[in-house]
Amino acid sequence: MAVDSKKLRLEGRAALITGAGSGIGRAASLLFASEGAEVACADLIPEAAEETVAKIRSEGGKAVSIQADVRLSKDAERMVSTAMEAFRHLDILFNNAGTGIRGMVHELEEEQWDTVIDINLKGVYQCSKAAIPIFLEQNSGNIINTASTFGLLASPRYAAYCASKGGVIMLTKQMALDYGPDIRVNCICPGATDTPRLRRNMSARPDPVAYEQQLFALNRAAGRLADPKEIAYAALFLASDESSFVTGSALVVDGGQTIDA
Ligand SMILES: NC(=O)c1ccc[n+]([C@@H]2O[C@H](COP(=O)([O-])OP(=O)(O)OC[C@H]3O[C@@H](n4cnc5c(N)ncnc54)[C@H](O)[C@@H]3O)[C@@H](O)[C@H]2O)c1
């Protein structure tokens, strides 16, 4: 497929992004809009989604906000129908909403396990299930999931998170197989990224500065945290025609974290 370098990379496309109110989701929403996409910004926290939409509109972009919980089928269906009402088509689904709770298996309460698996893994299923009928009808669609390097590597006391993200990687490959060639499905595996969630985790530590240094060292070749925009650019690549032959892949964007894994 030829790529027209004069065109904005997502011109004429409509995207639905979950977890759009913060961090990687907000950075991707702004970037996609700046590349010509109409963006439906979904988040559990309505004010957060609205703030992202306000930023997009202030830069001349088109966006709508949706308060929704990715765990719920009725919310997933409403996200898709709201995007369709606003834009009349839907081309890209970026399943990015996620959360993490630290703990070994015997430490995690069942409710904590369910929260992490339901948001990170079941959420991908719910939102994909809602969007796929439209993609099938259009004979085209593009799904991007946010996994993690912790879907590839084990991390101490992070059982539910690692399990959920490993699941996202395999679900990505499975969906790519089931729905190709018309629907491409890929995921991103970010390393430690400087988002509000990471900052919250950091400040909850007894020594946040020491923990920050540990995180810098984790992204071992870069020696720093990723900026959310650096992850958003990977999503943009996967969302655009530049990646037309890429499907079922887990794109690692980790400053070298997994170099010797
Ligand atoms: N920050 C990192 O270091 C890092 C590394 C690897 C992967 N990730 C993944 O990147 C994604 C984004 O993380 P982030 O760091 O930007 O986090 P963040 O907390 O800054 O943003 C996540 C957003 O998702 C929303 N959200 C949470 N649960 C939701 C639900 N049930 N329904 C709808 N929205 C919900 C939150 O309200 C929030 O606005 C997650 O999937 C996370 O696991 C992050």
Strand order of the largest sheet: 3-2-1-4-5-6-7
User: Percentage of helical residues?
Assistant: 40-55%
Could you give me the name of the CATH homologous superfamily of the largest domain? NAD(P)-binding Rossmann-like Domain
Number of helices: 8
Q: Characterize the biggest β-sheet.
A: 7 strands, parallel
What would the CATH topology of the largest domain be?
A: Rossmann fold
Order of helices and strands: EHEHEHEHEHEHHHE
Overall mean pLDDT stands at 96
Based on helices, strands and strand pairing, what is the structural class? Answer: alpha/beta
How many domain regions?
2
Ends: how far apart? 34 Å
Give the number of DSSP strands. 7
Outline? globular
Flag low-confidence runs: none
* Portion in strands: 5-15%
* Rg estimate, integer Å: 17 Å
- Which distinct ligands sit in these coordinates? nicotinamide-adenine-dinucleotide
| CATH architectural type of the largest domain | 3-Layer(aba) Sandwich
Keywords:
alpha/beta; single chain; Rossmann fold; 2 domains; 261 residues; 7-stranded parallel beta sheet; binds nicotinamide-adenine-dinucleotide
